[in-house]
Design a protein that fits this description.
The protein is about 75% helix and about 0% strand. With about 290 residues, it is an all-alpha fold. Helix 4 packs antiparallel against helix 10.
């Protein structure tokens, strides 16, 4: 009887957990689903509201207008280039730093670590940051302004450092006996066995670059506009959106419907990357948390 009672309690607990998780999933996913279906509805009809589960009058006018705008196409290319180049550069730079300070024999190891950790708690502020990037590094209006200031992140470095310290020392010792130097060991031995943490850091950086708009506003120009920056401009300027829609021959498109289409376009690409790195992402985060 006791066993049956525990079994019944266990099943009840499982059912409650499933119901709770399903409710949370619906509450989390439905707003985005509603944005997607509303963006595919006729703009004038969507202004009436009441769209719940599927488009009432299917239309792709919002997306036609978005992709007819040359600024949007250019922003798409700039954002993709920034995400790919910025992510690869940041992973390589952060990995090289973490691999170096993971060696106890490195001269000045504690100093470099302390120097990095201090930046987690103290910031120079927006004015010194702007002066350094624009006046002294002369990167304002240059594509490198999206890459260089984002090469290093202390949290990511600590995660990679923890992972590298857990690798067997025999791998490096055997390679050194065969005459391999540190660069060869790093690129040909360490990086290939570090896929979980590399995928985790790559995802962090890719999301950060894809969603970034503040540095584009500060240092960019009309040729370096990003998707998120355009989204911010659309959200804050309804009158210009209506004028642009009329100029492009999409008089029925409203500012609200264009916002929804732009939100979908700027969100879906980064969402689709999660399934490809999920296996490595979970593994990389767990390794860092357990050994950290």
């Amino acid at each position: 009887m006791v066993a049956n009672s525990k079994s019944w309690s266990g099943r009840s607990f499982d059912i409650l957990n499933v119901l709770l998780l399903v409710t949370l999933c619906v509450m989390t996913l439905y707003p985005f689903y509603n944005i997607v279906i509303t963006s595919f509805n006729d703009p004038t009809d969507a202004a009436r509201g009441g769209i719940t589960f599927w488009p009432r009058e299917f239309s792709v006018e919002n997306y036609k207008m978005v992709f007819k705008d040359d600024n949007m196409i250019r922003a798409f290319i700039v954002t993709i280039a920034r995400t790919l180049v910025g992510t690869a550069a940041a992973v390589l730079f952060t990995g090289a730093f973490a691999y170096g300070v993971a060696k106890n024999e490195l001269i000045g190891r504690k100093f470099f670590l302390m120097l990095a950790i201090v930046t987690m708690y103290f910031s120079g502020g927006i004015i010194p940051y702007y002066l350094v990037v624009a006046k002294y590094l002369h990167m304002k209006g240059h594509f490198l302004v999206y890459i260089v200031p984002n090469l290093f992140n202390v949290f990511n470095a600590i995660l990679m450092l923890t992972f590298f310290k857990g690798l067997p020392k025999e791998i490096e010792e055997s390679a050194k006996i065969d005459g391999a130097n540190d660069l060869r060991i790093f690129f040909q031995l360490v990086l290939p066995v570090s896929k979980p943490v590399l995928a985790t850091i790559a995802l962090y950086n890719a999301v950060s670059h894809w969603n970034a708009w503040y540095d584009a506003m500060l240092f960019g120009n009309e040729k370096l506009v990003t998707l998120q920056q355009i989204l911010m401009q659309i959200i804050s300027s309804n009158s210009n959106v209506s004028l642009l829609a009329n100029n492009l021959g999409f008089g029925t498109v409203t500012a609200a419907s264009l916002k929804l289409a732009t939100m979908v376009i700027t969100t879906l690409p980064i969402v689709f990357t999660y399934p490809f790195v999920q296996k490595y992402f979970v593994q990389g985060v767990m390794i860092g948390s357990v050994k950290g």
